[in-house]
From TrEMBL:
Transmembrane segments: 35-61, 81-101, 173-195, 207-227
Location of this chain's protein in the cell: Cell membrane; Bacterial flagellum basal body
A Pfam family: FliP
UniProt function note: Plays a role in the flagellum-specific transport system.
Organism: Granulicella tundricola (strain ATCC BAA-1859 / DSM 23138 / MP5ACTX9)
Name of the protein this chain belongs to: Flagellar biosynthetic protein FliP
Gene Ontology BP terms: bacterial-type flagellum organization; protein secretion
GO cellular component annotations of the record: bacterial-type flagellum basal body; plasma membrane
Recorded superkingdom: Bacteria
UniProt keyword list: Bacterial flagellum, Bacterial flagellum biogenesis, Bacterial flagellum protein export, Cell membrane, Cell projection, Cilium, Flagellum, Membrane, Plasmid, Protein transport, Transmembrane, Transmembrane helix, Transport
Length: 236
């Protein structure tokens, strides 16, 4: 068993044998310690990258608005909403990830480019994706704050400007969708509150009556289907 594992390891990419024994090289021909440092750093930055360069923030904001509009405090749970946001994010980012894999990851594994060149290649499709949803107003703001010259096209924008502008645009879009989603349920709350007050039901909180009505309304119109379809189409 040990001999078989040794033979597999010797034939794996990045492992070479010479007269002095086994020599392990990292990705792109770099040293193994530096490759490990880069990979561990990247893994620690994945949560931040998920928020900064993907639609995850917009989706999660809308789902939290929905929960508050329905009058539910813990249902669906935070873990459920985060998991749903991650699945939707993976669905939306899969084409971009495929391009990054073909243009950056595969050549890096083959050793034809360096890790820095792979990062540059991976940044191009990400910049193109974010450019579709970033607002010119936000880009102009961070260009002014960074004191950078106005670029000729999107490819000339630095990530120092693109990332905060994209996050700000996503926050605005999430709050806009969440506010529109909140209004129909607010009308139900107002109607129930006015009816209970007019009939003298002062001891019964209106939320006790309005919450089941809002849930019935949400289920009758197939709310989850409408919400997810609208969110997915907002990224087209």
């Amino acid at each position: 068993m040990i001999a078989a594992l040794g033979s597999v390891f010797l034939h794996a990419p990045g492992a070479t044998a010479n007269a002095n024994g086994l020599q392990i090289t990292g990705l792109g021909g770099a040293s193994a310690p530096w490759t490990i440092v880069v990979l561990l750093t990247f893994l620690s930055l994945i949560p931040s990258l998920l928020l900064c360069i993907t639609p995850f923030a917009r989706l999660l904001i809308v789902f939290h608005f929905l929960r508050q509009a329905l009058g539910l405090q813990t249902t669906p749970s935070n873990q459920t909403l985060i998991g749903l946001s991650m699945i939707m994010t993976f669905f939306l980012m899969q084409p971009v990830g495929a391009v990054i894999y073909d243009t950056a990851v595969t050549p890096l594994q083959a050793g034809t480019i360096t890790p820095l060149q792979a990062l540059e290649r991976a940044g191009t499709p990400m910049r193109q994706f974010m450019a579709h949803y970033v607002r010119d107003k936000d880009v102009a703001l961070f260009l002014e704050l960074a004191k950078e010259p106005r670029p000729h096209n999107v490819q000339d924008l630095s990530f120092r400007v693109m990332l905060p502008a994209y996050i700000l645009s996503e926050l605005k879009a999430g709050f806009q969708i969440g506010t529109v989603l909140f209004l129909p349920f607010l009308v139900v709350d107002m109607v129930v509150a006015s009816i209970t007050t007019s009939v003298g039901m002062m001891q019964l909180p209106p939320v006790v009556i309005s919450t089941p009505l809002k849930l019935l309304l949400f289920l009758m119109v197939d709310g989850w289907h409408l919400l997810i379809s609208s969110l997915m189409r907002s990224f087209n």
